[in-house]
Each structure stands twice: as C-alpha cells, then as structure tokens.
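Newbie here. three chains, one complex. Structure please?
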Amino acid sequence: MSLADESLIGGGGFGGPSPVSPGAAAVILEGLRKSYGSVHAVRSASLSLQAGQVTAIVGENGAGKSTLVKMLAGVEAPDGGTISVHGKKVQFRSARDAAISGIGMVFQETALVPQLTVWENVSLGWETSSRIRGIDKHAIVDRLSAITKEYGLFVPAERQVGALPVSMQQQVEILKVLYRDAEVIILDEPTGVLTPQETEGLFKAIRVLRDAGKAVIFISHKLNEVLEISDIIYVMRAGEVVASATPGQLAPRDLAQLMLGNDLPIVERVKPEAGLPTVLEVSDLVCSKFGSAEKVIGPINLRLSAGSVLGVAGVAGSGQDEFIATLTGLRPAVSGRIAFQGKHSVVIEPGPAQSRSVRALRGAGMAYVPSDRGSVATLATRPLWVSAIAGRQRNPRFDWHGFVRKRKAREFAREIIRDGQVKAHSVESLPSSLSGGNLQKFIVARELADNPQLLVVEEPTRGIDVGSAIGIRQRFRDLASSGCAVVVISSDLDELMEVADQIVVFFDGAIVAEMDRNDATVESVGAAMTGLARMGGA
Amino acid sequence: MNWTLVSRHLTRYSVGLAIGGVVISILLVAQGENLGRFVNVVLASSFVSTDAVLNLARWTAPLILSSLAFLIGARAGIFNTGVEGQIIVGACVAAIVGSSMQLPAIVLLPITTAAGAAAGMLWAYPAAWLFRRYRVNEVVTTLMLNYIAVLLCNLVVRVFFLAKSSEGHESITVTSRPIAESAAYPVFVGSSSASWTVLATVLVFIAGAIALLSTRWGDEVTAIGGSRKFASYAGIDARGVQFRVFLLSGAIGGLVGAFEVQGILHQFIDGSLTNFGWNGILGGLLAMNHPVGIAASSLFLGMIQNSQLAIQQFTTVSPYMVQLIAPLFILIFAIDPVKKAIQTIRGRNDN
Amino acid sequence: MTIEIAAIAGSILFVLIAGLQSATPLVLAAVGGAFSAQVNVFNLALEGMMIAGAFAGFAVSNLTGNALLGMLAGAGGGMLVSAIFAIATVYFKTDEIVVGIVINLVMLALTGVLLSTLFNASGQFVSTTAGTLPKMWNTFDVLMPLAFVVVIWAHWFLYRSRTGLRMRAVGGNPAATTAAGVSVNGYRYRALLIGGVLAGVGGAYLPLSGLSMFTVGMTAGAGFIAVSAVLFGDGKPLLVGLAALIFGIMGATAIPIQQFKLPSEYALVLPYLVTIIAVSVKGIRDAKRRGEELLT
C-alpha cells in the first residue's frame, strides 16, 4: 500500500493511510518489520510524520505501537524496512544515533535518575564540560532556561528529580529530548500516571511543541485523549498500520472498531440457570495501588454464582491486578470485604496475616492460576513435583508429621501430568524445561485437581500455542458446567467472549462497565477499556 | 537426578580445582616446594593415623556447624555475614555460664550449651527484626554486629570474668575463668584434641540436613529462598518463617562457640575463634548451599586447617599458605568462568 | 590542679595527633569506598586493597629507600586488587559481597606468604633500607593534609565533573543511564579503580608512616572501619571523610581513656555501633516512604 494513493476514511469499512505530500514529511517509515523469535511484533508498518503536527498511533495491546516507535527512537533495531529522515535513509545503532538525527522518546517508565537534579538529568550524556574546570553548569542551566522559556515548560533546574511530582518528571523528560535538539518527539502512553489536570498541562505543552514546528507522536489507548490532541491518527492492528484519519472525521465508535477489527465469530453460550447459590460476594472492596501510597482501587462490588464465568477486562494498570491479588488473599484490603462460599464459608476483611487468608481460601476451595507462571505459580529452582504440591503441602496426603511424603508427591505430579495431558520429561525436571503451553497445562491441572468451587485464572492462554489454548478453554467450560465458578482475567477479548457469561471492565482503578455476555461485543468491551464507557460513548 | 545440572556443577568444580592447583603450584615453587610433596604432607597430617583423623574431626566439626548456620539462612534468602559474631557471643556466654555454677554434669552441660545457642540467637535478633520489619540490609547489620561482639565479649570477660593464676595474678590476655569439669565435654582419646562435641556436631548436622531436605518446613524455607512470591502463593508465611530461620541461624552459630569452649578450649580466649565464621561461610558457598555438599567442603577446609603444623614442620612453605588456599579456591570457584564462557558462546548464537 | 589540667591537655593533644595519624589511612580508604558506593557497588574489599597497598608500598620503599615511590607502589597495589574485584563483579557478575570477603582473606594470607618468600621473614619484617615520609613541622606527615585535599577533590570530582555526574547516574538508575547513551560498566570500572588507588595509598601509609616495618595483618580491620564510614556517610565524600576522621580520632582515644577508668572498648566500638544506627535509621525512613508496601 503506497503512501501516494490513499483516501480518507468514509462511512463504513476502513481506509488506508492518508495522503501527505512526501516533500513536507519530516520522517517516513516504510515497511518496518520486527520479530522477537516467533512473535511478529511489527509485520509491515508504513507511515509518515509531519513537522508541526501531532500524530497519534492507536491500537490494542500487542498491536505493535510501542515496538514501532522504539525502532524509530533507535532503541530496537528493525529486521527490515526503512526509516528516512528529511529524505535521507538512516540506520540507528543506538538511541544516541537517533538523538543525533533529531528523534527523542519519552518512555512509559521514567528514565530519569532520581538522585540527580533536573539540569543534571537533562544534560546526562550531553554535558558541556572541560577537563580542568569540569562541567560548565552555567552553560547548561542557561541553555535549559532558554528551552523552558521557549516551550513554557517550567521546571526548577536545581531540584532533585526524585522529589518532583510525576507530571513534572515527565516534563523533565521532554526537556531532555528538546535539549538534544529533537525535531521528532515521541510520547509513549504519557497520561497513565497523570491526573486529569496534569493531562491538560501536558496537552498544553504538546500544542506549544507542535506550533514550534516539532513533530509529536502520541501513543495512547485512551481514545478521548487521542481525539482531543491529535491532528492525524494512525491505527495499528496485528503489527500493521491499517488505517488513518483525522479526528474530525471519526466518531469514537468508529475508531474503536478500527482498532479491534470486526470479523470475529460470536459463539452462542448457554446462559446459566438463575437461582444458583452465590459463591463469591465482594462488597465495597478498596485496595491500594501497586507502588503508590495514595491512589487506590475501588470500591468494587461483585457477585458471582456457582457455575458462571466472569470475565475481567482492562488495560494493564487499570486495577484488575490489585483486585485479583486481594481477592486471592495475597494482599490485605484497605476496606470492604470478600465473602467466599466454597466448601465452607470464608470471609476476608482488612488486616494483615495474608498467609492465613491464602490457606483459608484454598482450603475452602479457591484455586488460582497466576499470570506469572515461572516465578509465582511454580518454583523455578526445584523439580516439578515440588511445584505440584504447592498450596497443598500441609495436606496429610503429602505431609506425614511434618515430613514430606515425596513418593506421594511424585505420584500426584504424575497424576496431574496425565490428567492435563502435559508433555513433561519427568517429575524431576525443572519447570523451565517445559514449554510455555505445557507448563500452563500443568498449572491448570494442578489447580483443578481438587474440584474447586472457584477458579481465578489470569491470562490463561498468553503465549500458548493454539492447540493447548483450545484445550485449556475447554476445561474452563467443562468446569463451569459442573458447578464451579470461574473468574478469568484476560487481555484477549476474543477469549473472554468465548468463555465468559458476564464481563466487567476495569479502567483507571474502578469497574466502569458490567455487561452480560449476550449484550456485549468485542467492540463495546474494547471501547469500555479505553474509558469510552465513562464518556457515555459506548 | 538432573544430569545436565550435575555435569555443569562437576565441570565447575574441576575447572576451579585445576586453576587453583596451578596458582598454588606457582606459589609453592616460589617457596621451594612442589605440589606433589605439599599435597602429601596435607593428606598425611589428616589420614596417617587415628590421631590424625581425630584431629581432622576436631577441625572439621566447627566448620560443618558454622557452614550449616550460614546455609540455613541462605536457603531462606538471608545472607548472614554475622556468623563470626554469633560464634563469639556463644562462646563467651558458654564460658561464663560454665564457670559460674557448680552443678552436676547432667544439668550443667546441656544448660551451658543451650546458653551458648541462645546467646547466638539473641545476637542475631536485632538484625533479624530490622530486616523483617523494615527490610534493612542484613549483610550490613550482621557485619557490624561481628565487631561489636568481639569488643563486647572482650570487655565483659576482662572486667568480670578474667582468669586468675593460682597466685592471684590476672591473665594478661583476655581469657575467662575455666569452666567447671562438669560443663566440659570429655575428650575421645587422650592423644588427640577431638572431644564429644564432634559427635554432638554430627547429630546437629544430620538433624539440620534432614530438616532441610525431608521436611515440609525445609521445603518451605527453600521455597522462600527461591521466590518469596511463590512461597506466599503457596500459603507460606514468608516473612515469619524467614525471621525465625534468621534466629535459628544465629543459634547454630552460638552453638559452634559453645562447643569450642566446652569441648576444646574450656575458656573464652580472645582471638581463638577467629575465622571460624568466615570459613563456615566459605564452606557454604563452596557447597553451593547444599547440606550434603557442606560435609565435603568442611572436610576439605578442615583438612587444610589441620595441616598447618605439619606444613610448618615438614616443608619450607609459609604457614600462611594454609590461610590462603581456602579463600583462593573460593574466589576462583565463585567467579565461575565456565558460566561466563557458556554465556558468551550462547550470546553469540542467540543473536 | 594545674598538673591535672596539663595532663588532660597533654592527653588531648596526644589524642589529636595520634588520631590524625590513624585517621589518615581511614579517610583515604573511605573516600575510595565512596566512589564504589556512588556506582552502587558494595565494596567490602577495601581491607584487601589496603593490605595490598601496605605490602607493595613497604616492599618498594625497602628496595628503593624512597618512601614516596613506596606510596606510588601502594597505589598500584591497591589498583591491582580493585581490578580483580572489578572484573569479578562487573564482567563476571559475581556477587560483590562474596568477592569482597574472599579477596580480603586471600590478600591477608598472600602477604604472609610473600613476606616469607621475598623477605624470608615470618609474620613481621623490619626494614633498614626503607625511606620515611617527609614531615611538616616534624609532626605531621605530608599525607595528612593530602588526605584532607583528597576528600575535597573527591567531592568536586563527583559533583562537578562529567565523569562524576555519570558515575552518580550509574549508581542512581543504570537503565536510565544506558538510555542516555552512557556506558554503565565503563564508569563502574573507573570508580572501582579510583577506589583501589586511594585505598592502596591509605594502606601504604601504615608501614611507611613510622616504624618502617610490615606486620601481617597490620591493617587490623581498618578497611572495615572505612566500610563503616562509607555506610554512615551514605557514599557522600564529605560526610564519609568526616566520619572516617571521627572514627580514627575516637580509635586513638582507646588507650588514653583507660586513664579515666574507661575501658578501651568504648572507644573502639563507636564506628560499628554508630553505623548500625545510621543504616537502620535510613532503612526505616526508606521503608516508611515506600508506604511499607511489603507484599508479604
């Protein structure tokens, strides 16, 4: 698809990249490719960036946006395709090369040294200095204040970066990029850490940069922001740039549809009978956000009946991880309660002593398959049979007066390997010797071995071959049919649509949408994940 | 048995042994000695007679226990550099308790030993608490406590429990009053220095090894050291168990000190316990923190320690060679050139 | 009455001078350790570097009769040991605590072996040919003010020079430093080698500052006091230098305070006690800031 003969997006369907006169383009990406082993992060991406424009790149998780801009910023090397800056083909061997060509990137995780001051961070690697007199601080600070005045990004030059609020740290990162005379500035999901007011501040700064003739690239999954700030939007899906448009031409629905595609088969599911006992009741649950003392998740209210499957969707960092950690007893709640009615009743209330909560929940029939298979669900340093009895080690079947009944443990391990159709060499092998799919089958089989009343499972088929994935999903459906309740957290919306009866969507620390399976579509779920539900545009 | 793992370890030990052997040969030749003769002397001093073997046992025992102290902590993810200090405190308290009371052996002996172990545990407590509550680096705190232990015990013994000769003259060196007969472990045979503490050590070691390898508690400890998140996931009280293991590590250290005093020295003598802790840590590292490996590494280190006199008498080699060999091997071993070589090769292929 | 005052004044003067003398090697080694701390490497091998410096300095001074050459050799010895430490920890990525402990033990024993090999002495050797360090006003070695200058220089270097900035960046956030195009390992090597040079000079001071004699183990844990000073001062040269100075002076009071019926241990224990408190306070403050977010 060449850049020359595109058309703008019309009513239905989707169009191609927009027409841009190549002469004015600051940067042209053509046919870029990047794979990590068997994962094709970017298949073939082409787009052009104009000076004095804000270009947004949108797409789902895994669409390839981050990888694409990382290639542009010199952080990753492309496997194929070309990058042209002002008409000249370039090859970046490092971020420094890209910086010399005028391309700078502000990363999602702050790349600043907290102990250093603002001016030290900004000039790191680019310092004006002499052998004898050391760093020419005046020259650096002068240059810095010239830049801050020009772009209206006022940051105290002498303060320690670690003491600054996150929004200011982000501005320091922008200053860092400008200090290196960047013409192209890439912002990767910049608003995740910002409050609404801080976001407005950022947008003001972006507009100044754009009016000064910079090319700003804005990556976000939050469609409302994208529509507000950008001049042109590129949509990526499955490693390719599939469409482009200007904000005025698109309703949020259209954009969401472009991002998610609309060619998925919808599977009919039998709705569970009403009147089944409640297995799980979450009341006004509030938990603290990872790594932050102030922000919280919640309050969350949920009810789950036996035999029904609850799907949990949400972009990473929206709060579902904290919720699951609290639900499974691994983290204490700040307030609220969890009532689990399994083999017997267990109530979790705020307060410490997590290991007791975990054991109580397990004992009452809660099973949990975490997303981290290698370091949480299994123990990497010991043989499989040790991981096999994880969570059951106190069971008299495996514990004789404090001694480990290794023969029984190995026997059990063999059982679950058989039941789960796991391809494992022996129960003495280390978990790392199993392929991703087999390890997951092992873990799932282990968790289901005691006929649990509730199964909580995170990312059940991420990185797993199609065959194993189908088998795993089948197990969930069978499980639900036999009366077990299931909570599935997944970034694969197709998967959620397949297995869930109800879907809840997390966004920005709360549940923003609750949909019955038959009413939900992948688009509506995806749209809710972008905050559209809050906007009322779903 | 995971054969790839085993063969990797064997390669590492052999390469380490080879390189170490070369370095030591060079040093020996510079002192007018050759490797073959040197090795002979070393082996003979530990194996040539029953007395020799008993002397070997005398040196190996405290190393086994000291390594066990470090090992147990390491299994739970705790780097207890304070074993040295815990040993000293244990020895000091055992010397004080053993010399302050006149009780029959059946009472005084175990009480003294228990006091030593308790003292070691108490000495580890501040570091353990700070780690549990505030994640304060345990290496730093236990390291500092080592030096404080030396100074404190010297002070206490010098001021309150200093030994006096029969004429009432105070001892010049910091030495405590001898412990009562009933607090001492008897010697095996008159001609060697090994006492029944060796047997006690072996029992403690076997108990510790069984606990680590065969019990649920041992598996939980190993799990915590492997991955705290996995341990929590499996319903283990990771922080609590880690804390208690830290204390246990200190207690075993104190036990080493108590056994040294009750079995060999019969007094607290300043400077007599130097490096038992460090060599124990070295033994633990050499054994890659496996209980069975500790028996082997302690034997190796004990053999070297035992040969000090013989080396002085029968070779032209400096007695400091004895102190050099163990850490030298550990250094070569720890650096693990095999691993780096493999990584560099793999790195080239993966990219 | 006046005699007592004079006695006390005499003691104080003695303590100050003796204190400065024992503090000099501590200050030098501690500042060397501060460089390691700035690149976030826990350097326990200061003792080994000092030992190497002491032996190399002594040997060369004995050979040439020139104490200043001896100092240079001491720097070289310290740098050699720090090179081993750096290669083991940066290139081979071995655990720095293990390497530190082991290097100290190796160096201690190695000097014993070398002493007997090269000088045919066992444990101690008095040199008749070694030079002495030049003195100012017949009391202060030239090295004492030098140590003071080194502290100031280290502060300037770390906070005003380009290399110093990059070292601090490496210690603060290695990932960000790599992203800025600065070589993390390169600056780690530089910092460790500078540390080795300083610790080596500090160690060389011990045999050359008086009796021209080398005893195995003459560093007597000075390297660990230096480590304490580094921890106490949180790797910041001015604070670290001050801590080392205080520790050295306090250590010199160990004998005089016995006049006042106080045990010498009171003076000797200070560095370690004070360091535990400092490290714990810092740790508690850090934990409170993290919101004690200690997920089990």
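Moderator note: Chain B is about 75% helix and 0% strand. Chain B has a mean pLDDT of 88. Thread marked as resolved.
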